[in-house]
Design brief:
Layout (H helix, E strand, L loop, with lengths): L9 H31 L4 H23 L7 H25 L5 H8 L2 H11 L5 E2 L1 H22 L6 H26 L6 H22 L11 H28 L2 H4 L2 H19 L10 H19 L1 E3 L9 H5 L4 H4 L5 E2 L11 E6 L4
Antiparallel strand pairs: 1-2, 2-3
Helix pairs in contact: 1-4, 1-9, 1-11, 2-3, 2-8, 2-9, 3-7, 3-8, 4-7, 4-11, 5-6, 5-7, 6-12, 11-12
């Protein structure tokens, strides 16, 4: 007669928490640097992103099948994950790779860090979405001021070049595409398992980018990539898209969401440090700059994001203006549709700044 499996000890549970947070903090924070390593190894940007997404999607779906989770999606869910995957991954992630052809990975990560601010700002003006309170608006102003502070040396002509502005523009555009995908996913929630839905998003987006890479004639360039490019691709597939994301999902089920979402503050700091350290030890061509402007911009952006994502929210704006009869009628909890102020809900894996897949958010 078989014995029941022993319950996990406190020490083993603590170790799992530490490893999961480490994966989410360090791995997602390192993906910006690894993208640059792959680009410096002559990985063609479209196929680089396509292969990462398609293979990671297959791994996640294979894992889901092994766990016995339902893989079949309804028409609604399939349409949603297709659209969201195209905005988040073909849009947000792919344009991040394009941006890193022109700007340091640390700058890319810091621009991506403002995605929760774009999402909160969009929710504040769209009907049916919860709106930020004064504290949340203060966080928006502070965070965008930090972005301006980060870019000020380039605005003032202290340093930087015209080609860097192309990279900045691509990265900002990537954050807008990611924000759009986040809002769509929030308005059209799916019933599928999170890992299954993300696996399909990656697979569909990877297929679209494989087709685009073929049209752009990138396949011949795959023959000239170095071992560093192969290792970068493997790292992004296994660690960035699979291990870190499954750690994120596990943490959401076992830890307070507010604690899980601390990765949006930690990832940019990790990315800035790794970009400098990798150049110092020779992993990339030169250390990425960490000057007073970068430190100040990073600090203000992280503070703004923290203030916005922890602020309470106001009830959603009604989709239509109330009639005079509705305005004069007594409001009750059952008819007004309003809710008390509450702590802002953390962004899901589709709403966080990359997850990348975000993962993570904001993770790439």
């Amino acid at each position: 007669m078989s014995q029941p499996a022993p319950a996990p000890t406190h020490a083993s549970s603590t170790l799992r928490l530490v490893l999961a947070f480490a994966a989410m903090y360090v791995i997602w924070g390192s993906t910006y640097l690894v993208i640059r390593i792959g680009l410096e190894a002559d990985m063609p940007p479209t196929l680089f992103t396509a292969l990462r997404l398609a293979l990671a999607g297959l791994i996640l779906l294979g894992f889901a099948r092994w766990r016995g989770w339902r893989l079949r999606l309804s028409r609604h869910d399939l349409t949603t994950v297709s659209v969201v995957g195209i905005f988040l991954l073909c849009g947000g992630m792919y344009f991040t790779v394009l941006a890193e052809m022109y700007i340091p990975s640390s700058l890319s990560a810091l621009i991506v860090a403002v995605i929760p601010l774009w999402v909160a700002a969009a929710e504040g003006v769209l009907p049916g979405m919860e709106r930020p309170t004064a504290r949340g608006v203060a966080g928006l102003v502070l965070g965008f001021a930090g972005l301006g502070l980060l870019l000020w040396p380039r605005i003032a002509g202290v340093h930087g070049s015209g080609v860097e502005w192309l990279g900045v523009g691509l990265q900002v555009f990537a954050t807008w595409l990611w924000t759009t995908g986040s809002l769509i996913s929030k308005r059209r929630p799916v019933k599928a398992n999170a890992i299954v839905a993300t696996g399909y998003e990656m697979l569909i987006a990877g297929g679209v980018l494989l087709a685009l890479g073929t049209v752009l004639g990138e396949w011949p360039r795959m023959g000239s990539i170095s071992a560093g490019g192969i290792w970068a691709l493997a790292y992004l597939i296994v660690f960035g898209s699979c291990i870190a994301f499954t750690s994120f999902v596990w943490l959401l089920r076992n830890v307070a969401t507010s604690k899980v979402m601390t990765y949006t503050y930690v990832n940019p700091v990790v990315a800035v440090f790794l970009g400098w350290a990798a150049g110092t030890v020779g992993l990339i061509s030169s250390p990425e700059p960490v000057d007073a402007w970068v430190l100040a911009g990073m600090t203000v952006i992280v503070a703004g994001v923290a203030l916005t994502t922890t602020a309470p929210t106001r009830p959603a704006r009604p989709a239509h203006a109330p009639s005079p009869a509705e305005e004069s009628a007594p409001h009750t909890l059952s008819t007004s549709g309003s809710r008390p102020l509450r702590p802002a809900t953390a962004y899901s894996s589709h709403e966080a700044a990359g997850d990348p897949e975000g993962a993570g958010g904001p993770a790439t």
